[in-house]
Amino acid sequence: MNWTEITTQDEWKNILEKSAERGQVILKHSTTCPVSANALREYEQYLKDTPNADVDYTLVKVIESRPVSNQIAEDLNVKHESPQIIYIKDKAKYWTASHWAVTTEHIKAVLD
Predict the structure, then answer these.
(1) Does residue 1 surpass a pLDDT of 90?
(2) How many Å apart are CA 93 and CA 19, to the nearest integer?
(3) pLDDT tens digits, residue range 25-65?
(4) How would you list the strands of the sheet with 92-98, edge to edge?
(5) pTM, full prediction
(6) The dihedral of CA 75, 76, 80, 82: what is its sign?
(7) Rounded CA gap, 3 and 23, in Å?
């Protein structure tokens, strides 16, 4: 399974709407941060194993897509952090973790 990158606020709004029907996971990723690079590796490792097939997986690059990243924080009422993983259900934040807490084990514990 792979993630899809979003770059527009319309794409984000579609994901938020889809969360009413199906879980959505967003990884907010900074392309200049080594901690974020580690979080991306953990996210991709989870997706290589046996990810929850009832969830869609998305990536937002926080520097390149700052308006989208800011809109996510505002819509879900979560403080922006990077890296940050957010699990969305029913148009609301269900779970979030950031920095070194974004691990394959942590993702499995929440999603599986």
Answers:
(1) no
(2) 10
(3) 999 999 999 999 999 999 999 999 989 999 999 999 999 99
(4) 4-5, 55-61, 23-29, 84-89, 92-98
(5) 0.95
(6) negative
(7) 13
